[in-house]
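Hello Y.,

Per our agreement to keep a running log of every chain we model this quarter, I'm adding this entry. I've kept the format consistent with earlier entries: sequence first, then predicted structure.
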Amino acid sequence: MAVSSLLLRLHLVVVLAFLLFFALKAGLLLLSRQEALRSLRARTRIVDSVLGLLILVSGGALLAQYPGRVPAWLWTKLALVLLLLPVGIAAMRRQNKLGVVLTLLGFLYVYGLAETGSLALQRPAVPATAAVLPGLAETTATPDAAVPIEDTTARHASGLSTTDAATIAAATPPATDASATASSPEKPILAAGKALFQQNCEVCHGLDGKRGINGAHDLTKSNLNTAGRVYMVTQGLGKMPAFKGQLTEAQIQQVVAYSLTLK
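Predicted structure for the entry above:
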């Protein structure tokens, strides 16, 4: 998973570099600085080609390693990138200001997709019935203890936003025997959970749970109990993919049991 982490970082750096060059050239075009634009394009022609190729290669590799089912927003992001790259390059070559502006707006939308994991550029809506999040104060209370979402101290300690906390609260059942399993798991369960965690979670969370790539929460600071974690792994939330259908219920319990040891 270290390779996946490096690949993700490379992809982010390449994308930012490409957008920086494109935005700079777009600014020169819109300001009618033709001579400066021609000079910059001549110096960065090879760089642009290399960056574009790296975006496609690294993005494709990351997509192939994506844990769980690939969501619709990610397919949309991929399709837009494949469309915007050639359109933007062609618009810049023809010095088409409208085409360049539309391409920039398209890239901004793609960035919003990556940040929110939503086609509407919105976080998951808060269900009207959501009132409490079970088990936030896991380290100081029983697993099925209820903490109001308005309790911002507990919510911040969990590493979740109000929206995320409410979403889990609406769908998370009361903690059952799974909580007892997580509090005193057998070594084989932890070993299996660690292996599954390395295969599916380490790329974003890190093996120690602290990496925080791609919006992943620091698991060592999370006070979510077993039921809340099982829900998140099963159903996904925001940019976190759902593992329902990819992992069995037993495997999800194993991953959760291992995650509870990350302190």
